[in-house]
Amino acid sequence: MNTIPYGKTSKQLVLVLSFILYAFLTTAHGQESWRTDFDETCARTTDAMSLSNNELKVLIAKCDQLQTIIEKQEETVRKVFLKRLQMCKNLYVYVLESKSASEKTPK
Amino acid sequence: MKSVLKLYFTGFRKSIVYLLLLITLFICIDSSQAIDRFELGKIINTIPPNGPFWKYGNVVMRRKTKKAGMSPVVFSHWSHRQHYTCRVCHVDLAMSMRSGDTGITRADYTSGKYCGACHDGRVAFSVKESTNCDRCHMKEKELQDLENQFNAFASRLPLTNFGNGINWSDCLSNGLIKPVKSISSANIPMSLPDKLRNPMKLGTATARSDVSFSHEDHFAEMDCSNCHPDIFSIKKKGTEDFSMDRNIFGNFCGACHMLVAFPMNDCKRCHTSMSNISGV
Amino acid sequence: MKKISCVLLFLLIGASITWAAGTKKRKLPPYEFGSVTINNYSQQSGMPPVVFDHWIHRQYYTCRLCHVDVGFGMSAGATKIRAADNIKGYFCGTCHNGRTTHNKKAVFDSCAKEYSREAYNSRCVKCHEIEKSTLKEDQFFKFAQNLPKERFGNGINWEKAESEGLIKPIDQLEGVSINKAKLKIQPDFALKSKVEGMPEIIFSHKKHTVWNGCELCHPEIFMGIKRGATKYTMIELFEGKYCGVCHDKVAFPQSDCQRCHTKAVQ
């Protein structure tokens, strides 16, 4: 069996490996982060009625951001999460619209 | 020889496909109407004035009885509708309006479903007693009894020349019969909305044949869901092909008014300006 | 040749359906009510269509869990579920993965890339139903036996079954659902009927939020912003719009007039 000399090649190998590892970690981390973002953004559907107009606008903007990220995901993930995102975004838009409508025409 | 055989077989197969298509075509045309010509012929042969009053509205159920070696069940609407409105069985007890659709089994009625809901030994004779089998799975003698019972029952009621020979709606409005609207306190039927109290005028080709339809008369026996939206979609002008022909073949009004409720040869009942008597 | 005959057959069936107007539709037996046949890709990949029964699932889970968190659409075939999605652990595969447990029993695995004859006979056919089994029918009656009765639909009063605690549908699934604040229930309200003398409709948000979340109905199904501004007609409802999205298909049918038209006429 040949012993591998601890030289330039192995150093390069380590470098490449660490790069690959880093790339993997970041994508994994990236995936995680949009999931948590998604969870946070859509967590307010139960109390959407009590949010202020500004809060709603921020959430809708967040939804739009998330949409571009999710569109880059793998097919099934895209299908499931775009639908979920659409539902919660639509609700925020709906609540915002109904709020501004009721503000315009006070009882 | 071989090639001839092959040709023969492919041709043969093709013709089979065509034959199957033709058969499906005929089945479809047949099923296009609620009842087919043969069935209608049978009905017309039995409904008064062609047949006896006591047989009108009797439903003979033999789909499952034959296999079980029993005589077919003869269900008479007239003996039941004097005590109960249509809705009791056709809504609350989930009986279908088409014979064979409900798929009643022995296990069903002995466990208190369908017939067993009343035929429990308290309200009416029990379906569980072995001595009672013949009372529904009728033979010659029981059929004769049924006829006699009918004659005794009908003798005190106003006469018409159609259907059962009984003017059921007159009986109802005069209080000669008092059918129960519900057999459970949980299912009290809704009252008729005021807007629907007045009879509807339905225009036809000529004024003489215009129809008067009363929601109230129908509501006395039934629930909204008996007719809506399956038989009559509640759309304005949504009922297409509403022809006498389609009606007679069991669609629309024909779902009841050919089999149980007064048959459609009693023209005057709906076309109020028409006359049943020739030359008048 | 085959295609032509298929097309012809469809045309004929279509024609026979239109001719059959004005007749009573077949009333589904209670165990078939709410069953959905899904056949987007099944038959083309050599599998019988999937028969999904709502009654089996809704005794354990709320509507919201599947139709919001798992992402199932609200009409048959709309989701376009593929075997690959299930294998990856989405849609049916969210629970049907052989690992998730329910009542301490593993939930059977859904689709697989390759399967033996044995697996086909024991596993695939559980959803890709080849023939109607009387076993399921028996199971249904055994299940329905102890629940509050109703005349229509499944013959089960699901609303009562839940409120009496006879069924306890789960609303959250670890790793799938989002942890949310508890839903503040909106007040019930009355809708006046157009037909004079028809009892008013009492719409209960409370009864609906037991099973659903806001985003399931708003704005997709009910988009009206101001209460009473949108007029709903029974015609539209019967056609499967608004309430008809669920009622008639899965929730109690609309022929049960008095479940909604409850307020007595004054």
Kindly describe this structure.
- The complex is a heterotrimer of chains A (107), B (280) and C (266).
- With 107 residues, chain A is mainly alpha-helical.
- Chain A has one domain.
- Chain A contains three helices and no strands.
- The longest helix of chain A is centred in the first third of the chain and has 35 residues.
- Chain A starts with 7 loop residues before the first helix and ends with a helix.
- The N terminus of chain A is likely disordered.
- Chain B is mainly alpha-helical.
- Chain B has a domain of 31 residues.
- Chain C is α+β, with helices and mostly antiparallel strands and 266 residues long.
- Helices cover 27% and strands 8% of the residues of chain C.
- In chain C, strands 5-6-7 form a three-stranded antiparallel sheet, with no helix packed on it.
- The longest helix of chain C has 18 residues.
- The mean pLDDT of chain C is 90.
- Chains B and C meet through helix 1 of B and helix 1 and helix 10 of C.
Q: Summed up, what is this model?
A:
The complex is a heterotrimer of chains A (107), B (280) and C (266). By secondary structure, chain A is mostly helical.
Structural category of chain B: mainly alpha
Report the portion of residues of chain A in β strands.
under 5%
How far apart are the first and last residues' alpha carbons of chain A, in Å? 89 Å
The 3D shape of chain A can be described as elongated
Taking all residues together, what is the mean pLDDT of chain A?
81
The total of helices of chain A stands at 3
Biggest interface and which pair forms it? B-C, 50 and 34 residues
What number of domains of chain A?
Answer: 1
Please work out how many helical segments of chain B DSSP would assign. Answer: 10
> Could you report the average pLDDT of chain B, rounded to the nearest whole number?
86
Across the major sheet of chain B, the strand order is 1-2
Topology:
The complex is a heterotrimer of chains A (107), B (280) and C (266).
Chain A: H1 8-42, H2 53-70, H3 75-104
Helix pairs in contact in A: 1-2, 2-3
Chain B: H1 2-31, H2 37-46, E1 58-61, E2 73-76, H3 77-81, H4 86-92, H5 106-110, H6 140-154, H7 168-173, E3 200-202, E4 211-213, H8 215-219, H9 224-227, H10 244-248
Chain C: H1 2-19, E1 35-38, E2 50-53, H2 54-58, H3 63-70, H4 83-87, E3 101-102, E4 105-106, H5 117-122, H6 134-144, H7 158-163, E5 189-191, E6 200-203, H8 205-209, H9 214-217, H10 234-238, E7 261-263
Antiparallel strand pairs in C: 1-2, 3-4, 5-6, 6-7
